[in-house]
Amino acid sequence: MTTQQGLRARKKQQTRQQISDRATELFLARGFDQVTIAEVAAAADVSKMTVTNYFPRKEDLALDLGEIYIDQLASIVRERAPGQSALAALRHACLAAIAAQDQLIGFSGEPFARMIADSPALTARGRDLHDARQLALADALAAETGAPPEDITPRVAAAQIAGVQRVLFNEIMRRTLAGESNAEIAVALTRDAEIAFDTLEPGLGNYAVR
Question: Do you know which InterPro entries this protein is assigned to (predicted)?
Fold first, then answer.
């Protein structure tokens, strides 16, 4: 990449982040459904078209890590260590994310969690992201194991693993909305994650070993 291309890429990322930050501020202050794209554009000092170029869906202004979230589990599987199963890699990553109180797995704080819970549009978009993440994981498992299209094993495995991740995400949201601190939630979720992954171990412990 040339210096000019690098500068252009950084400028685009800065603009994207600026739009997302201003949008989040407005959404938290007034509620997602009460804020328009035009108001976001004005707050970010860009045109409405610029906002929609970066964020075709209004929901993605609030859930701006959606693409990263969708690929998260698949990426962990693709990058697992030699001799490691997909389940072991995902367990390790999940526990590490809980310990780090990673916002990507749900540690977003009460105001943000409330904003999502109060918006049917954001709640629906969240379900879409969970579904897309499961499909991405199934594709990764199929590629890593060389499974043919008619083999449902990767899809079944992905449904179980992504289902556990979804339950843990929802539990973080529930506890956050109930007023628990991130530290308290991390303690409880560490226990819950161990229970959840132990449940999957008999069926998937030896599946997709690199």
Answer: Homeodomain-like_sf, HTH-type_TetR-like_transc_reg, HTH_TetR
Helix boundaries (H) for the chain: 3-30, 37-44, 48-54, 59-62, 66-78, 86-99, 110-117, 120-145, 153-177, 182-204
How many CB atoms are closer than 10 A to CB 123? 12
Where do the domains of the chain lie?
Answer: 3-62, 66-204
76-113 tens-digit pLDDT:
999 999 999 999 999 999 999 999 999 999 999 999 99
Output the pLDDT for position 5.
Answer: 74
For the domain 66-204, what is the CATH code? 1.10.357.10
Domain 3-62 has CATH 3.20.20.70: no
Cβ atoms 104, 97 nearer than 8 A: yes
